[in-house]
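Retro notes (design track)

What went well: tokenization of the new backbones is finally stable.
What didn't: we kept losing track of which sequence belonged to which structure.
Fix going forward: every design gets posted as structure first, then sequence, in one message. First example under the new rule, 458 residues:
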């Protein structure tokens, strides 16, 4: 038997493990206090060896003196109040979090940013029919995400992939109120969507200026990681302010952050230190092509890049001012360049120009190769699509175009994409590239099938 009371170690040596009947009294350090009783070991008499006894006694005396010196300090600390054990408890009062209005001028603590905005963040749950089982019965799928209130009358911004193909959308507020939401419109290429609930006097967020962000600035994300840890906040810094990435084949210009981002955070707000929304949390880098797990690589869509489109969706139900060139593009490959005896091997080859389109009005023609847009180098269709995201319909740009007889500069005014083309243009263009020339998959524009950027579905 092992007894740890007051650091005394008593053992029985009986084979059956039972205690010896003999008990001894423990005399505590306070002198005369009776302590716990424990078994003693029966000792056989031995011949006296006085020299050995003296050495043993000296050793024991030294050990006891040393132990008493150390133990006395601890005992004094624990016995000073007359109690056997004394625990120090802080008397610091509970910190009161001041509730500030977001004015764009007052820098807030993390707790203040949360208090000022948590009522504007929403949890989003969706359901859809994923197919049918063996018996022909529909199989329902569910996903979760986040969003934030844009207006008092119930407009909410989230990611397109959060509500894509959803049959029902349920919004839950911080106070527990639930609403059935209606899909207003979205833009898949920019991964934004606007939904609406029938409510009044909701608390909207304040949108900031994402162009003012600097690498190293502190940012905060509020959302619903894993779809169940609702209204959680994580913090970090801006790691990059203008990061070009591909998410499932779609090019994006993103804010990179090391704030903790997880499935279910999609569509939630990214706040600056002033409590303003500067980004929409959208994706994370979860694994490298070699299979290495990585952390601290989250991405948010800059609010400046989508603000005009969000207003357009709220007004028209779709993005009416999305820039449109009116061409069928193809990433130029070495094979294509050799076939046409071109001196360039990178750029966007024009397969077809739509009549009366922006490209047609600017004088572009089949066989041209776009190599730059306003000085930005264009090597692939993805580069061109990413460059287009900086413009709206009616904006002007300067294209550098290669032709067999020399390079020319072309001024264009971006047209507006027809409504039916809003979600189909990039995918249709890629399909055309594959069907018309079979060059798309073999050049710099081909996508890595193990592309690591993934949307969050919770």
């Amino acid at each position: 038997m092992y007894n740890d009371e007051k650091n005394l170690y008593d053992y029985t040596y009986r084979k059956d493990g039972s205690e010896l009947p003999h008990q001894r009294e423990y005399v505590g350090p306070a002198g005369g206090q009776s302590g716990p009783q424990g078994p003693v070991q029966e000792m056989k008499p031995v011949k006296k060896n006085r020299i050995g006894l003296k050495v043993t006694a000296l050793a024991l005396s030294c050990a006891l003196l040393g132990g008493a010196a150390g133990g006395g300090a601890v005992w004094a600390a624990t016995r000073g109040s007359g109690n056997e054990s004394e625990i120090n408890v802080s008397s610091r009062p509970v910190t009161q979090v001041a509730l500030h209005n977001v004015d764009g001028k007052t820098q807030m603590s993390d707790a203040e940013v949360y208090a000022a905005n948590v009522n504007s963040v929403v949890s989003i749950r969706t359901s859809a029919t994923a197919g049918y089982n063996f018996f022909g019965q529909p199989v329902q799928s569910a996903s979760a995400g986040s969003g934030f209130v844009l207006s008092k009358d119930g407009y909410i911004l989230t990611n397109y992939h959060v509500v894509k193909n959803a049959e029902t959308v349920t919004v839950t507020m911080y106070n527990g109120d639930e609403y059935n939401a209606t899909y207003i419109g979205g833009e898949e290429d920019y991964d934004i969507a606007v939904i609406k609930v029938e409510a009044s006097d909701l608390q909207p967020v304040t949108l900031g200026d994402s162009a003012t962000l600097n690498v190293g600035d502190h940012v905060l994300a509020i959302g619903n990681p894993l779809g169940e840890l609702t209204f959680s906040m994580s913090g970090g810094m801006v790691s990059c302010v203008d990061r070009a990435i591909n998410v499932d084949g779609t090019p994006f210009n993103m804010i990179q952050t090391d704030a903790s981002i997880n499935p279910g955070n999609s569509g939630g707000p990214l706040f600056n230190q002033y409590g303003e929304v500067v980004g929409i949390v959208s994706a994370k880098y979860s694994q490298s092509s070699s299979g290495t797990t990585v952390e601290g690589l989250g991405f948010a869509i800059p609010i400046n890049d989508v603000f005009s489109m969000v207003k357009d969706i709220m007004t028209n139900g779709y993005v009416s001012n999305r820039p449109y060139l009116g061409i069928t593009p193809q990433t130029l490959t070495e094979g294509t360049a050799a076939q046409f005896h071109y001196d360039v091997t990178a750029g966007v080859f024009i397969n077809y120009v739509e009549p009366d389109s922006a490209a047609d009005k600017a004088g572009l023609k089949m066989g041209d190769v776009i190599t730059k847009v306003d000085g930005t180098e264009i090597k692939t269709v993805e580069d061109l699509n990413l460059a287009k995201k900086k413009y709206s319909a009616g904006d002007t740009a300067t294209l550098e175009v290669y032709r067999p007889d020399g390079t020319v500069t072309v001024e264009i005014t971006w047209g507006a994409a027809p409504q039916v083309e809003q979600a189909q243009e990039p995918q249709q263009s890629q399909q055309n590239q594959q069907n018309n020339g079979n060059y798309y998959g073999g050049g710099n524009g081909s996508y890595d099938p193990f592309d690591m950027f993934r949307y969050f579905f919770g």
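Added context from the reviewer: Confidence is low (pLDDT under 50) at residues 1-13, 20-78, 422-458.
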